[in-house]
Amino acid sequence: MSIRFKVILPYLLLTLIVAVTGVYVVTSLVSNSLQERLTNQLLEAGRMVSDDFARQEISHIETARIVAYTTGLAEALEAGDRAGLAGLAQPLASGLDIESLSVIDRQGVESFYLVKLADGNYFVPGVPSGLEAMPIVQSLLLADNAQAAPRRALVYNAVIKKYYYYSALPIELNNRLAGVVLVGTSFDTIMPYLKSTSLADVILYDESGRAIATTLAGQSTDESFLTAFSISEDEYREVVESKGNIAGENFELESRWYSLARSPLQVGGDRLGAFAVILPLDFVLQPGAVSRNNYIFLFTGAMFGVIVIGYVISRLLINPIYALVRASQAITAGDLTRRTGVNSSDEIGVLANTFDAMTANLQQRTFELERANQTLAQMDKTKSSFIQVAAHELRTPLTLLSGYTQLLDNKAKNNPDLQTISKGLLEGSVRMQEVVNSMLDISRIDSKMLKALPDKASLASILQRVEKTFQAAWDERKLKFVTAGISELPLIYADPDLLYKLLYHLVMNAIKYTPDGGTITLRGEVIEDDHEISLTVEDTGIGIDLEHQHLIFEKFYQTGEVQLHSSGRTKFKGGGPGLGLAIARGIVEAHGGRIWVESPGYNEETLPGSCFYVRLPLEAKRVA
Ligand code: ADP
Questions:
Q1: Backbone angles phi, psi at 524, to 5 degrees
Q2: Contacts of 151 (CB under 8 A, 6+ apart)
Q3: Which of 431, 511, 558 to mutate to test the pocket of ligand 1 (most atoms within 8 A of CB)?
Q4: What is the pTM of this model?
Q5: Are 418 and 467 spatial neighbours (Cβ–Cβ below 8 Å)?
Q6: Residue 496 banded pLDDT, cuts 50, 70, 90
Q7: Residues in contact with ligand 1 (CB, 6 Å cut-off)
Q8: CA 508 to CA 177: how far, in whole Å?
Q9: For residue 624, what are the CA distances in angstroms to 453, 493, 499?
Q10: How many of the other CB atoms lie within 10 Å of CB of 147?
């Protein structure tokens, strides 16, 4: 995953989580506060309904008192003078705007009854109302106390088939109970009043939980409509036992949702039943939905804003990193002129500037190295040409010199003094010839002119030649020369003279760097898997430091102090021009092989020894 996504993805996720949580929290806060407002409103409406009933009760009691204390009314009632009673009560009813008036004597017989009709006229029904049977009337009669407190109840008036709210008051005559007066107001009057004061719809329940009136759907008194709103006795009990409001279930009516709360209906000491106040949910649901949509819209907009800002920030942050990556790739591919091009002053800018400075340094160093390399190559070329020129120039005089020395040696046979001189001259010229030959070999190798002239070659016979060459050294230095596996080697297709030179230099070095009495071992074997021939020249000499091991194959490279070298050719630590191993490597490479050395290190005391490895390809060049 690219770094851009690694930065943007968590940022996006976080923004999304914050946005969703934000919308959720804000909308739920709003809907909670709306719900709270609704609950408060229901509470307030319930209080209004209770207050309305209390007011109605006060008005009933005042009216009933006026009736009860009207002069002559109690006497007429006591005397059973119905006409007199009616004469007093009827004007009172219309004067006090009483909707239902009933006067009952102390025997419990209704002596006067009157109701106001819907058209506003009063009507005295011929049939008794049956109101005297009401428990509140019976209890007042039974108490037989003229001072007893008024009672009240919600009652269905069977004569005019309407519910009424009745208040009952004792009538007194000479400190005795003369009867009971009942003042009632119909629900037709009460219900619209409740609705107008509480600003809510109302349902009234009787004491069994049955809905008996409602302002819903235009004060419907339709039985089945009302039954739908009735509650079970358990629910009713729960309501009356509660102190305040009990939230009811929400319901839908004519595609509008309502919320409802029920309270007990209590006036004075009498429980009349219960009531419910109802408010439409619109003002909770609609603003809730509107505010939720607003917030979703707002947060979505904010999120897009945040994403755009995030993208811009990530670009600002990541582009310099990309520039760094591209620059480092170009530099790895070799373009040291490439720079990041980042100019900011922040941490990435500092990193890019440091990187650019590093690249500039590297470019400068590389340039210097290239120059030094060119100089070295030029010097090496000059050295090679010098060796070539010197070797060629020395060869002719040297041939002359050795010819004359030979002549001198022949002539000095009978003169011992002269013979010593001629012997010394002869040895010196042979040594010089060897050096010049080595110089010629090296210049051929340098100019890639050294060509192997392959022929059937027997390593065993080449080795015999080498052994013979150094015969004097073996005896003089008491060195042991051991061979292993050489006679079993097959003939190989290689240049016998070059192979002789190769072994000559390796054995010569082994002799030079092994103290007297040491052993030089030459092993040979065929490595079938690699199709190669392996030759190793191992000695018990002074060994080679690890740091020199890869350098000794360069021409003129010598370890140790040159002037300390003893001058003898095969003497211990005898001197040499530093060309032997360079020639050996040139010969091996001319045959397509490899050469390397292994030694634990240099030590003249412990004599760790050295082992030179040569691998020559066999498969293509093997001769049957
Ligand atoms: P030189 O003419 O000095 O022998 P060479 O190229 O043959 O030059 O060898 C280079 C150097 O490698 C020698 O000076 C010597 O220090 C080291 N060297 C070569 N062969 C051996 C060996 N068998 N043991 C220890 N040192 C060796």
A1: -140, 140
A2: 136, 137, 139, 140, 167, 168, 268, 270
A3: 558
A4: 0.52
A5: no
A6: very high
A7: 505, 509-510, 513, 539, 541-542, 544, 552, 557-560, 576-582, 610
A8: 160
A9: 18, 10, 19
A10: 9
